[in-house]
Amino acid sequence: MTATLAAVRLQWWLMRGSLDDRQSFILAPLFVLLLVGAAYARGRQDLIPQAALGAVLISLWNICVQVGGGIVSNERRFATFELAAASPAAFPLLVLGRVSTVVGVALLVIPEVWLATLLFFGTAVTVAHPGLFAIALLLTTFGMIAVAGFVAALFVLARNALYLQIAFTYPFFILGGLVVPVSMLPEWLGPVSRLVFLSWGGDLLRASLDPQPPAGVGKQVTGLLVASIVTFALGQVLLGRLVDRARRHGSLGLA
Amino acid sequence: MVDQTFGLQPAVDARSLGRTYVQRRRLLGPPVGEVTALGGVDLRIGEGELHGLLGPNGAGKTTMCKILSTVLTPSSGSIRIFGLDVVRDAKQLRPLIGIVMGGERGLYYKLTAREYLRYWAALYGVDTPTAARRAGELLDRLGLGKRADHRIETYSRGMKQRLHLARGLVTDPRLLLLDEPTSGLDPLGARAFRALIGELRQDRTILLTTHDMVEAEQLCDRVTLIDNGRVIATESPSTLSTRLTRFERVDAQGVDDTLLAKLADVSGVSGAGRRPDGSVRVETAAKDASGQVLRMLLDAGVTRVRTSLPDLEEVYVHLVDGQGAARR
Amino acid sequence: MSRLLTVVGWSLRLGLSDLRTVHTWRSWVFGWLSRVVSQVLFFSLVGLLFGGRDQVQFLLVGSAAVIAVLECLSIVMWAAADRHLGTAGLVVVSPTDYFLAFAARGLHTVLTGTLSALIALYAGAAILRVPLHWQGAVAAAPVVLLGACSVYLLAVLVAGLVATASGAQWLALNLTYMLIMIFGGFVIPLDTWPAVVRAIVSAVPYTHALQALREALATGPDWSSVLAHCGWEVVVAAAWAVAAKSAFGLAIRHERRSGGALLAG
């Protein structure tokens, strides 16, 4: 536990000094302009909350994948991985501490996007079902932590991390239903998209903003939980594998 | 002014060359101070000379190289290369200068060696047939011919270093700047590389910066000692080494305080004292002093004795002291 | 002239070799192109959600065209990498003009950017069943290439401005890209913006080429209007070329005086 907390603190220090890590906060208002602006320009004021939510989810996802995903590959690059792997703390827990910090800080885009929407378009997005919103947000946060841990390991195992980092954007914006609900996708994509936790999380968050009474909440919460837990478990297994492999071969990853 | 050593016009002629850097704590932050990298350097290099610039890290060697290669403007003084001013006539000067850096920087890893040389030849305006011919010849000459069409990322340290040299020569420059060219090479590799420089110099003017005494001694016609942004001495390597042999040091164990006091009084001994491990170190600054110290030690029955030459840094201290200039 | 061509030719080879540091042909096809096509599909779906079937073509064309912007802007990263590798300083001391040498250095991004944008356009149209008439589809190639050239000059300018600000390159790249995407008429129709914004935007590279592209792909295109938009794009590109050249000259002159990081070797 102490080690995880130390990892939280380390990540906080590292992010404080890095412009790259903070750029998503600068870009978030621009995603508001882009997505909310696209709805606004077509006279769809009713879709402004949905577009703003899209800006939040895209920014959150980008921070998780770019910053969280880079954690282990940076450890490798700066040769601090060996030090961390040699320490008595469990490596997956260290990564967990660090990605949790990343996601925790990333949540600040929510008030940021809300403000930007108000400022640029004069619309104060209201949460119709606060309780549902809180639950959805909590579970989505957990899902983000799970994904960040998973990609952190994946980027090291992959031969070309940049190529994965590129691939972990728009395909997932579609499959995760970040702006356009997955119900609008062709039917055959449905099962695939349901593997991505955000397809559940996005639906739940949208439902919490919609004044209509929400339907099928139980199913969605279950789906979100299951998808997140599976991703989380996969991430922890992969991270553990990384350390084993490093101990056996004396090196990390294939590259 | 007619320079006595080189006739009418030296290849490089620096007069009271100064360079200061503004220090900032943050990018775009307010200046917090100034660092002097070069404080009034006079340096003349004759056409065809291989001149060494010898000094420890941070002495100002790299700053000097940057100014000579036109990437940095001097803060004061003037410097002319082949009669052209480095600031005003930078455009005409650039084709005449070649640069060879040491280490892993300055390479495009995904190019082959041949492509790499052709690229730079193109940037220096070398026409295509000449560039192709020269690249081939140089790669053969430097022992890279068989690997000429392999990517640079597959090269060893020594091969990269030879490629750096090829890059410097592919434009056939009149002045070649070798900026610590053997840094990072193992002793054998460095020796082979120095041999190559000796063979390829032809009638080119070359400035070699190094912190390696042996390197300067082997290659250079003359050597300028530089430290703290100032020239300490410019000599031929042979003069320099005679000056240096005056300085020696004697380490001995089992010396009592009475003997130590006597040793300190020997004429030509510049310092004598006890070191933390109990042994005694005597430093001499005159030719016959160390002989006398050794005799006295042997007479007193001390046999665990070792003599050594001081390293570069200590030589500097001696030279600087000898000239009465300010020490660091 | 032949010297210029030699420099450009070798720089292109260098740039394409750089591409190999990032991509194998497999990662380019399956990684990069799949991302690019997904991006087009994502925005087209946004169009479907916000504006119905009519808006799909608008967003398809805009989001495909903007991909060339993204790739051209990658010169910002290459310039920074050159500094990191110590090759930037060597380029500066070569007798070739800095601006020319740097601009030639990343010219491959114009070619790959155009290619990616066109592939995204055609693939997106095929997947979404948006009809493209053959004249328009053919005309799209030179028009996108013109837009890419124009935006590349802006990219070189940005690269020159942030080359020495370590750590700011990704942000500069993304900011420029987002601003062009938002205000250039790629996703949001130009007439949404107030007149002042539109006036500023008309000086932003690629916006005229984009209008030419939209016109060329429209049913019953007015080819004279396509040509007129292209003409304006050439004017804008020329202005940015001058701006980029002067900015680069200024940056290098400042570096020579201050002994800054760009030339650190």
Unreliable runs of chain A: none
Provide the domain count of chain A.
1
Number of strands of chain A: 0
Provide the β-strand percentage band of chain A. under 5%
Radius of gyration of chain B: 24 Å
Q: What is the typical, i.e. mean, pLDDT of chain B?
A: 83
Q: Which two protein chains have the largest interface (Cβ within 8 Å of the partner's Cβ), and how many residues from each? A: A-C, 35 and 35 residues
Output the strand order for the largest sheet of chain B: 6-7-8-3-9-10
- What is the CA-atom radius of gyration of chain A, in angstroms? 19 Å
Oligomeric state, counting identical vs distinct chains: heterotrimer
- Could you spell the SSE succession of chain B in H and E letters? EEEHEEHEHHHEHEHEEHEHEEHEH
- Can you tell me the CATH topology of the largest domain in chain B? Rossmann fold
Compose a concise summary of this entry.
The complex is a heterotrimer of chains A (255), B (328) and C (265). With 328 residues, chain B is of the alpha/beta class.
Can you walk me through this structure?
The complex is a heterotrimer of chains A (255), B (328) and C (265). Helices cover 76% and strands 0% of the residues of chain A. With 255 residues, chain A is an all-alpha fold. Chain A is globular and about 60 Å long. With 328 residues, chain B is an alpha/beta fold. In chain B, the strands form three sheets. Chain B has a six-stranded mixed β-sheet with strand order 6-7-8-3-9-10, sandwiched between helices. A four-stranded antiparallel β-sheet of chain B has the order 2-1-4-5. A four-stranded antiparallel β-sheet of chain B has the order 12-13-11-14, covered by helices on one side. The C terminus of chain B is likely disordered. The longest helix of chain B has 14 residues. In chain B, α3 packs across α4 and α5 packs parallel to α6. By secondary structure, chain C is mainly α. In chain C, 81% of the residues lie in helices and 0% in strands. Chain C is built from twelve helices and no strands. The mean pLDDT of chain C is 88. Classes of the chains: A mainly alpha (255), B alpha/beta (328), C mainly alpha (265). At the A-C interface, α2, α8 and α9 of A face α2 and α9 of C.
